[in-house]
Structures are given as structure tokens and as C-alpha cells.
């Protein structure tokens, strides 16, 4: 099963229901199907549903110049993210920072502000591509990224709880609106082996305590 297709289908179904409900409440002029298609695409692109309702309440089926002006600050997701960290060792039930490179291919500045809640995030998938953790931890952009610029920064990652083979996709999310890879952002799933932590890096005393605690947990769970 292709999880991405299912998620896209659910988003479209939800937005379609919102548009149909709004059009059933407010009378519209002109071709209803054209109005429905227009607003469906705008909502899928991240347009705020309140702007659609404002136009429909005012008796305007389709916006004109005022709508075009109001969308100039909408973040365009054209760009790319790639993992550049050379250390790809992940341990189960742990946390780490991962170096990535962000390229802004849009016409807008990317930054994390209350007005533009743009964050680094990620999705974990299992070995065959099923979603393991879709709503990954958020990391704010360390500085604004202007159009055409690139930024290397660390992203905070919470590792899967169980050892095994996984796929990691690092992405950007416009909080409460859309995931950037749903639009034009180019990213990829990176296959990774998540290892069981063996206490490496701890002092001898701390490692002994770690293994004692681990044995105790195993005895309790079995």
C-alpha cells in the first residue's frame, strides 16, 4: 500500500467536503463546479479556509485582484532538502541531531516566525514504506533563507523505539497548513538501520549500570 497516496487522497477528500459545505451555505454566482474546483485547489495549496469563507459571505464566488495580492506572502515550497551528515548511526529510543542542507528555490524568504510558522520536521517509515511516525519533532530554522540561498543546519530527531530497518524523510512543514513535500519541495527517504543501544560512549561504571538496568527491564517484561 502506498501510504503517500492514501494521505493525499484523505487531504483532498477533507478539503472537498469543506468546499461543498461552504457552497451549500452560501449562494454562489456562475459555474458552481468551476467555483468548487478553484477553491479546492487553493485549499490544497495551503490557502486559509477563512479567506474562502470571507469571499463567499461577501457574495463573491471567485476572487479577483484582491485575492492575488493577499497571497503574495504565501510560502512557495519550491526547493530541496538533503541529508549531509556523515554520521548516520541511530540508536533505538534515543535522540540525536542530524545535519541537513536546505535549498530555497522559491520566490519567498523562508523563516520561522509567528506569521510564518515554518519548521524543519521529518517522517519515519518502516522498512517497506508504511508510516511509523509521521508527525516528527519540530526544529525552527536557525536563520532566514532568502530565495536562491542554501542553509546547512542541525535537525533534532527522535529515533524509533525499536531497533530495525527504517526510512527517514526530513522535510519542512508550514504548521497548521501543509507539509512542503506535498507541494514542490524535493526530498527523499533515506534507508537507515536503527541499532540497539549498547552503552557505547559511557564510562565503565555508567555502562555497567546501564546493562544492569537493561537486564532488570528484560526480566520484568518477560
If you had to describe this structure to a student in words, what would you say it looks like?
With 222 residues, the protein is α+β, with helices and mostly antiparallel strands. It folds into two domains: 3-70, no CATH class; 79-195, Immunoglobulin-like. Helix content is 31%, strand content 28%. It is built from five helices and eleven strands; from the N terminus they run H-H-H-H-E-E-E-E-E-E-E-E-E-E-E-H. The strands form two sheets. Strands 2, 4, 5, 6, 8, 9 and 11 form a seven-stranded mixed beta sheet that branches. Strand 4 and strand 5 form a beta hairpin.
Q: β content, as a range?
A: 25-35%
The helix-and-strand class reads alpha+beta
What is the second-level CATH architecture of the largest domain?
Sandwich
Spell out the CATH superfamily of the largest domain.
Immunoglobulins
Percent helix, as a range, is 25-40%
How far the N terminus sits from the C terminus, by CA atoms, comes to: 34 Å
Order of helices and strands: HHHHEEEEEEEEEEEH
Number of DSSP-assigned strands: 11
Number of domains: 2
- Rg, nearest Å: 22 Å
- Residue-averaged pLDDT: 80
Question: Strand count, sense and closure of the main sheet?
Answer: 7 strands, mixed
Q: Give the overall silhouette.
A: elongated
Write down the CATH class of the largest domain.
Answer: Mainly Beta
Tally of helical segments: 5
What name does the CATH topology of the largest domain carry?
Answer: Immunoglobulin-like
Low-confidence segments, given as residue ranges, are 64-75, 217-222
Amino acid at each position: 500500500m502506498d501510504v503517500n497516496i492514501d494521505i493525499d487522497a484523505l487531504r483532498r477528500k477533507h478539503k472537498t467536503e469543506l468546499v461543498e459545505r461552504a457552497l451549500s451555505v452560501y449562494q454562489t454566482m456562475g459555474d458552481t463546479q468551476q467555483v468548487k474546483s478553484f477553491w479546492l485547489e487553493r485549499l490544497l495549496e495551503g490557502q486559509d479556509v477563512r479567506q474562502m469563507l470571507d469571499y463567499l459571505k461577501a457574495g463573491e464566488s471567485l476572487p479577483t485582484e484582491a485575492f492575488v495580492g493577499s497571497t503574495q506572502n504565501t510560502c512557495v515550497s519550491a526547493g530541496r532538502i538533503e541529508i549531509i551528515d556523515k554520521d548516520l548511526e541511530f540508536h533505538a529510543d534515543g535522540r540525536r541531531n542530524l545535519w541537513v542542507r536546505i535549498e530555497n528555490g522559491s520566490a519567498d524568504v523562508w523563516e520561522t516566525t509567528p506569521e510564518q510558522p515554518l519548521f524543519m520536521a521529518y517522517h519515519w517509515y518502516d522498512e517497506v514504506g508504511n508510516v511509523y511516525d509521521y508527525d516528527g519533532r519540530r526544529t525552527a530554522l536557525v536563520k532566514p533563507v532568502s530565495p536562491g540561498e542554501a542553509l546547512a543546519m542541525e535537525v533534532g530527531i527522535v529515533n524509533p523505539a525499536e531497533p530495525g530497518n527504517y526510512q527517514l524523510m526530513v522535510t519542512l512543514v508550514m504548521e497548521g497548513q501543509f507539509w512542503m513535500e506535498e507541494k514542490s519541495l524535493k526530498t527523499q527517504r533515506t534507508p537507515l538501520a536503527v541499532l540497539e543501544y549498547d552503552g557505547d560512549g559511557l564510562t565503565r561504571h555508567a555502562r555497567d549500570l546501564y546493562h544492569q538496568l537493561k537486564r532488570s527491564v528484560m526480566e520484568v517484561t518477560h
